[in-house]
Design a protein that fits this description.
heterodimer; A: 6 helices; 68% helix; 0% strand; globular; B: 150 residues; mainly alpha; 67% helix; disordered C terminus
Chain lengths: 143, 150
């Protein structure tokens, strides 16, 4: 059953196009995949000449709300997870994205755009696990 | 110049996450909740992002240096192995618990959300655990054979 009140196809598509433009800019100018877990994780084993662009990309993400607010009121994120859950989630996302060599951006967007079978497999795995986790937490555990 | 384009790419990426609503974990969980009242918005985000970037990757894959003269480092790994699948599943479980993946976590941190700070700190700790385990392995095998795709 689709939640028609929550469904926002146009802003989703517009935001997606911006994400695609960012990935395009990064690939064509920096020669890299805009994979956020990889860019961030690479800062933890810094190589020469590798720190500045990684830090700049992360800084851009952190600064996005400051630029957004120049044009429109900033939407307040709704974070329902408790602190303990956020710690567990963060650890899993950190370890998992590094072992899996990517996240929603690197595999889900860039990898699928490159028609990479490896990224398709990874995306199916993390989406499947995400669907299953939410099913268990919301519909079986009743949390 | 590559530093400037990296900053711009991060910024535009973050704006895209904000515009699309994906910086909001509740909206992402609405997508992951197939059995509940489902919000398909994330499909449209991915479709828009893939359509635009696919054209760029077609150009990029034929080049040996970028427009700025930087060496192209697009992933070449092709093998679908246990490491990829188990890592991705662990990520998916974490994603489903809180509704945060790395990009939205950083953007929400930029909004000054304390809960996003907790998530990002834990995520960095998780990445640090990976580094320590890999370094241990590299010390034993002397070469880090696994491809660093992203």
């Amino acid at each position: 059953m689709i939640n028609w009140q929550a469904f926002t196809p146009w802003s989703a598509l517009a935001g997606g196009i911006l994400i695609g433009l960012a990935a395009a800019l990064f690939a064509l100018c920096n020669g890299r995949i805009a994979g956020i877990s990889g860019v961030l994780g690479g800062l933890l084993h810094p190589a020469r000449g590798d720190i500045a662009w990684r830090a700049a990309f992360v800084l851009g993400l952190l600064a996005a709300p400051l630029v957004y607010v120049l044009f429109a009121a900033l939407p307040k994120p709704q974070i329902d997870a408790q602190y303990a859950s956020l710690v567990v989630a963060g650890l899993l996302v950190g370890v998992g994205t590094r072992y899996g060599s990517g996240c929603t951006s690197g595999h889900g967007v860039c990898g699928l755009a490159r028609l990479s079978p490896r990224s398709l497999a990874a995306t199916a795995a993390f989406m499947g696990a995400g669907f299953l986790t939410v099913f268990v937490l919301r519909h079986l555990a009743g949390a | 110049m590559p530093v400037f384009t990296a900053l711009l790419a991060g910024l535009v990426f973050g704006l895209g996450l904000l515009v699309s609503g994906m910086a909001n974990p509740a909206k992402v969980l609405g997508f992951l909740d197939l059995a509940g009242r489902w919000d398909p918005s994330l499909v449209f985000v991915m479709a828009g992002a893939i359509a635009v970037s696919a054209a760029a990757f077609m150009v990029a894959r034929k080049r040996t240096v970028s427009f700025l003269g930087v060496e192209m480092k697009l992933p070449a790994a092709r093998q679908i192995d246990r490491r990829l699948m188990i890592g991705s599943m662990l990520f998916g479980i974490g994603w489903g618990i809180a509704g945060f993946c790395p990009g939205p976590g950083l953007v929400a941190l930029g909004m000054g959300e304390i809960k996003a700070l907790v998530f990002v700190a834990a995520m960095l700790a998780g990445m640090g655990v990976f580094e320590l385990l890999e370094r241990g392995k590299a010390g034993a095998a002397s070469t880090g054979g696994a491809a660093q795709a992203e």
